[in-house]
Design brief:
The structure is a homodimer of 458-residue chains. In chain A, 56% of the residues are buried. The first copy, chain A, is globular and about 65 Å long. The C terminus of chain A is likely disordered. Helix content of chain A is 35%, strand content 15%. With 458 residues, chain A is an alpha/beta fold. Chain A has a 5-stranded mixed beta sheet, with helices on both faces. In chain A, strands 11, 12, 13, 15 and 16 form a 5-stranded antiparallel beta sheet that branches. Chain A folds into 2 domains: 185 residues, Aspartate Aminotransferase, domain 1 (Alpha-Beta Complex), CATH 3.90.1150.10; 228 residues, Type I PLP-dependent aspartate aminotransferase-like (Major domain) (Aspartate Aminotransferase, domain 2), CATH 3.40.640. Chains A and B meet through helix 1, strand 1, helix 2, helix 3 and strand 4 of A and helix 1, strand 1, helix 2, helix 3 and strand 4 of B. Chains A, B: InterPro entries: Aminotrans_3, Aminotrans_3_PPA_site, PyrdxlP-dep_Trfase, PyrdxlP-dep_Trfase_major, PyrdxlP-dep_Trfase_small.
Chain lengths: 458, 458
């Protein structure tokens, strides 16, 4: 078992000396040094175990052996660029295409979500002949310069916010299928269809950014945009984070028309690392694991279960303003006042720091940093869900005591102790959880369903 | 030994169907399918061996076992983002810094040369408060939209060339330390100092793009900009391609002043995959191999030897207009007329296609695509150099016969059969090659020096 070689303080000192100060660590006052990870668990230099509720990049579980093996084998054999023919490239493109509507058939492989979104803009500019981009308030689409222009989440952070003139922060044109950094915002069904209609009438295209929410995380569907209904097909889809379980890779998929138009510019597209055989082998292995371990199904079931547990918290804690999400992509919106919806920013930070002391990793996001974000590895289990909710329950109770925020006994009795609705899957099938009412005040003691646990090979 | 699973035609068909048509293959009429590679050799689906003279990304040799092992081991243990402390990140930053002037001390880890150059522009914009970028004619700095604006090599390819208004194609501000795609152009010593003086007087910074030429390739120095002399220190250095021997990673290194200014914008910099422990483990292993196998020394010696062989070609072939380069970064400029310097574009293509038939991979670049580019893996040997030059010699002889281009016997006797100057290293030490004059007309039969061969572990 490897542990860090450097004393933790030495690691911190070297980082201060040689790593850009704009690159922040989690928990800046006492950052965590992680030396190994497996499944949904991470281990620090003392081999203390943390439950990981935030690393959506480690999609099929940290260091999944199938993914590691696929990568290592291909690294040993060949890693070169896409100017040579290779089966991994075409088989992977074919496999990704199969998860999408037929029209979305042409792939470009790149190295990061930012590269993917930048290329999506280039495709759109070339195809439409226009330059204007419509983006959502609080959107985040990446860190390269073209994307900061269309990411209010980023440019509002600047001392002098200076949106580019060709960008209008109005409605949608490029949008995450479910907004992540913006605070886990779920668009109403039918919204994208209407936006797409307006955008297309104006000569534009619809770009669905699936960098954070794709690959089965929403549970009922493989892609977030599919939540909008079968009739909705974006013109361009961008993928990232989970695609390679941590390996730097990403993809843009578009229609034949957009792709042909891009070629007609006369400019070749070459990406040195994009679509290399190692990245494609890893991408294929990730798809295999999602299928073999039915991780989309797990996201649906555990996600529904976690949502229910959080809904229960809302009934007992005034600090909880909203619970929203799909599958294993859930936001717990904390507010100081439910009517005024005053963001409970400091309280959210407090929850996160206290969870960290109990070795649970959670983060807050949204414009006011008051939305607790759940986006764990997809092998997250019922016990994991119960543990994190139990701890949040205790922390909220403490916080509300301090703040003098307490629901009347009547409200608790009315809301808090009702029988929870059982989680159901995409076919409406109920998954009984062997008894479902709370027995004590602030501790959520919940039944287990062993079947859905331990999906992760160890 | 793995071979491709799909019939080659099937691979081509699937590629046409699912991969962006702007993504070109080498030798589009009959592309090569490579299934494995080792050192400076690549193997097709029939296990036929190709000598690789072009893949500078496979810097320490394709699939170097030390690099593969480092990557595989770390993938198994942990692959996560830089918000957690990790020793690999800081040790790698420290190690890279040690190769550079002391002032360049702060690193940002990203995933590609394009991301690196885009970040370099952001650093420069923030630090200087200005927006104008000066770039070199025929420069290429990457494929993301901000970089196409400053890459005449790319934007001149467009049907409607439309340089952005904030870009002036004049002299230098961002420049490759040796221009690669632009046609292996070597700036005169002292040029960067003068440019930097003007740029800094105008409130700007100097960005040295080492994506193609860094990491010892120039032989005498570890970085291309160091060829300009000890007194030259860029404000920002960007790295890419060879940094991870094919693994998608790159880095930007700058001064404390520029880094602090970037932080003062208030905008955090987070890159999902950048600086992950796997990338850093691989980066460290690449540096180890360069050192352990003295690949910089090999680039110097074999590079000098190859340059001499090519200089000899120039003496015997009118088609050769110029031989230029440093270390294992060499351009052979083909011209139809030496006085008028008419680019021999078709002839360069012919050479490349004929070499391919003999299983040698070479490419042409430059604004007229008439410069044969040598940038092989750094384990390239004397025999490799001799083989490729011998083949080029034969092809040029054939081409010149067809074109009616022939040097007079007098010129050949005067120029072609003179004793070659022995290659010398950075200390002026001569490396004898056991006899050094040609004996026959068009075949370069050259002595071997076993010591510098087989640097690559197999």
């Amino acid at each position: 078992m490897a542990t860090g070689n450097l004393d933790k303080q030495k690691t911190i000192d070297l980082r201060k000396k040689h790593v850009g100060p704009s690159c922040k660590v989690f928990f800046s006052h006492d950052p965590i040094k992680i030396v190994r990870a497996r499944g949904q668990y991470m281990y620090n230099e003392k081999d203390e175990k943390y439950l990981d509720c935030i690393n959506n990049v480690a999609h099929v579980g940290h260091c999944h052996p199938d993914v590691v093996e696929a990568g290592a084998k291909q690294m040993e054999l060949l890693n070169t660029n896409s100017r040579f023919l290779h089966d991994n490239l075409v088989l992977y493109a074919q496999r990704l295409q199969a998860t999408l509507p037929e029209k979305l058939s042409v792939c470009y492989f790149v190295n990061s979500g930012s590269e993917a979104n930048d290329l999506a803009l280039r495709l759109a500019w070339q195809y439409t002949g226009h330059k204007d981009i419509i983006t959502l308030e609080n959107a985040y689409h990446g860190h390269v310069s073209s994307l900061i222009d269309i990411s209010p989440y980023k440019f509002h952070q600047m001392a002098v916010a200076e949106p580019s003139q060709h960008v209008h922060v109005i409605a949608a044109f490029i949008a995450e299928s479910l907004q992540s950094c913006g605070g886990q915002v779920i668009p109403p069904v039918g919204y994208f269809q209407k936006v797409a209609q307006h955008v297309r009438n104006a000569g534009g295209v619809f770009i669905a950014d699936e960098v954070q929410v794709g690959f089965g995380r929403v549970g009922t569907h493989f892609w977030g945009f599919q939540l909008q209904g079968e009739d909705f097909v974006p013109d361009i889809v961008t993928m990232g984070k989970p695609i390679g379980n941590g390996h730097p890779m990403s993809c843009v998929i578009t229609t034949r028309e957009v792709a042909e138009s891009f070629m007609s510019s006369g400019m070749e597209y070459f990406n040195t690392f994009g679509g290399n055989p190692v990245s494609c082998a890893i991408g294929l292995a990730v798809l295999d694991v999602i299928e073999k371990e039915d991780l989309q199904g797990n996201a649906l079931h555990i996600g529904s279960y976690l949502t229910q547990l959080l809904d229960d918290l809302k009934k007992r804690h005034l600090l909880v303003g909203d619970v929203r999400g799909r599958g294993l992509f859930i936001g717990l919106d904390l507010v100081r006042n439910r009517d005024k919806r005053t963001p409970a920013t400091a309280e959210a930070q407090d929850v996160i720091y206290r969870l960290k002391e109990q070795r649970i990793l959670l983060s807050a996001d949204g414009p006011h940093r008051n939305v607790l974000k759940f986006k764990p590895p997809m092998c997250f289990s019922r016990e994991d869900a119960e543990l994190v909710v139990e701890k949040i329950d205790q922390i909220l109770t403490d916080l509300e005591k301090t703040l003098g925020l307490q629901m009347s006994e009547a409200v608790i009795s009315e809301n808090g102790h009702t029988k929870r609705k059982e989680p159901s899957d995409e076919n409406g099938l109920v998954h009984p959880s062997n008894g479902s009412s709370h027995s004590h005040k602030h501790t959520v003691t919940l039944p287990h369903d062993k079947k859905t646990n331990k999906r992760q090979k160890t």
